[in-house]
Fold this protein.
Amino acid sequence: MLIKTAAVLRADELALALQRWLVRCGGSPSMLAVEMHETPERDQHLFRRQLEWAVRHFTLVDLAAFAQLWQQARLDPKSVASAKPPLLFTFDDGRMSNYTVAARLLESFDTRGVFFVVPQFVKCDPEHVRQYYYSRIDTRQQAPNLPDEEICPMNPEQIADLAGRGHSVGNHTYSHVNLATVSENELHHEIVDSAIQIAAWTGQPVDAFAWTFSWASITPVAWRMIQQHHRFCFAPCPGTVNCRLDSPSLIWRTEVELSYLPPDYRFMFSGLADPLWRSTRERLRSLLRPHVPT
Ligand SMILES: [Zn+2]
C-alpha cells in the first residue's frame, strides 16, 4: 500500500529531485549500487524497462567511473551537484543469463556492470549444477524450481569475454560460503584463492568483492582479509551511498530484481526504502569501524 501510494504521488521522483536540491545547497552527494540476480531471456524486456526509467534519473556508470566520481564528489561536491547521481549495476553468483542477457542490455545503454562470480560454481560439472545451485547459491527453503538455463553458471571463456568488453568481474567467495562460519585457513581459500582464480580467467586484477548472504554473516576478521586484497567491498545491506560518510570498503547495495513491478523498483531506486535499514547500516559501521579506513 505504501509503495503504491508513493508511486501515485510520484514520491520517488520527488525524493530524487529533493536529493539533488540538497546537494546543490551543500549536502553530501550520493550514489547507488544495485544488486541483481537472475536475468532470464524471457524477462529481458523488464530489465530494459527498468534501464529506461533509471537512465532518466541517474547517470549509469561502470565500476571505474563509480570510483572516480565518488572521489570527485568527496574532494569537490559542487563539481557534481548538477549531474544526475551515479548508478552502478551489479549481479551476484555468475549466472549464464547475466552473460547472455544483462551484459548485452547494459552495453546497449552504453554502460557496464560488475559480475560477482563463484569459482567452484563455474567449475561445477553440468550434471551437478542443479544440486550445487540449490545447496550453495539459493538456499531458501521455498526457492523457485527454475529451468536449467537459469541456474547455469558462466564458463571461464564467458568470464574472460566480459572482462574484455569492459565489464568488471568480482569475487563472491570460492564456494558461496557464509564467511562467519569458516576457520581462518578456509577464509584465505574463500577470499584470496578465489580472487587468484578469477584473475587467472580475466587476466585483470580483481578489485571488487561482494559479501554472500546477509549482514549477519559479516565479521571483522573476514572483512580485514577482504580489504587487504580488494579495493571495493560491497555489503549485503541496502542503502544509498553517502559520498562523504561512506567508504569503498563498505558499499551498500540495494536489491532490485527483474520481477519487480515499476512502483517497487522506483521505490527502491529512489532510496525511499533506505530508512528501513538505517539501524543495520549503523550497526555494521560500528562493528567494522576499527577496520574501515577513513
Ligand atoms: Zn550470492
Remarks:
- The radius of gyration is 18 Å.
- Residues 68 and 180 are 32 Å apart (CA to CA).
- The mean pLDDT is 92.
- The longest strand covers residues 86-93.
